[in-house]
Fold this protein.
Amino acid sequence: MTNRRTFLKQTALVAAAAPFSGSLLDLGNSIPEHIGLQLWSVRENMQKDTPGTIAALGKMGYREVEAFGFDSGKLFGMEYANFNKLLNDNGMKMPSTHSMFTSKNFDTSAGDITDATKKIIDDAAAAGLQYIIAPYMIDEDRKQIELMVKLFNQVGSYAQKAGVRFAYHNHDFEYTVKGEDGRLLAEWIVQETDPSLVALEMDLYWVVKAGYSPLDWFKNYPGRWELLHVKDMAKTAGKESIEVGDGSINFKEIFKQAKLAGTSYYVVELENYVTTPMNGVEKSHKNLVKMF
């Protein structure tokens, strides 16, 4: 399987070559309204049989999906409207998607995001999305974090006017790599982006793998983490991702602080499996709903 980081880097290179919220939940013992699946988890199944895979996910109990690669007018070979219809026919919705944003999305001469970037955001709004999310920061952009947070604020501003919310999704490097002033990239992003314009999607696995507690970030920056990627960590030396509920991350304690975090959306994502992708996401859904 293609590594997700490799895919995101390749997507960014292609983009560079081109012209250019739900309310807070008091969880208690109730299951959240928004539990979804990042479709990267079942990407090969989606490519082979999109309608069959969506139907199977709906039968598992998923009511939402988060797409990836939202930038070309199509998802899995389908026009956005047709993909939405497929979801609706199976009792599902797509509140969020990942779409690459790099420094190439910023037109320095104009001091604004490019027209191509605006079109992607407009398409997301037209498709009824609640969030369009930057899933990764390529290596060269990590060296110019000041420009990137400026880009994120401008993307967020345009997205807000278009009727969709912009967010950023982390990996582990944001919690290990520092900018010139000594602050972690994660600190740059949370401190230098406008909360009214930029939301954050915390990938719990990557934060824990970097050696941090998500709860500390919730406490220090309350209300910023509107979406969570629910990905578990295997109890092995490699600490690879594993089916939710079979690893070492204490999701129950994390979810108890959802209101403090500002979280409304829970998105399952798997990159490694003990069995198969479809079996893995089914087991993850069953385990996840038991945690509330």
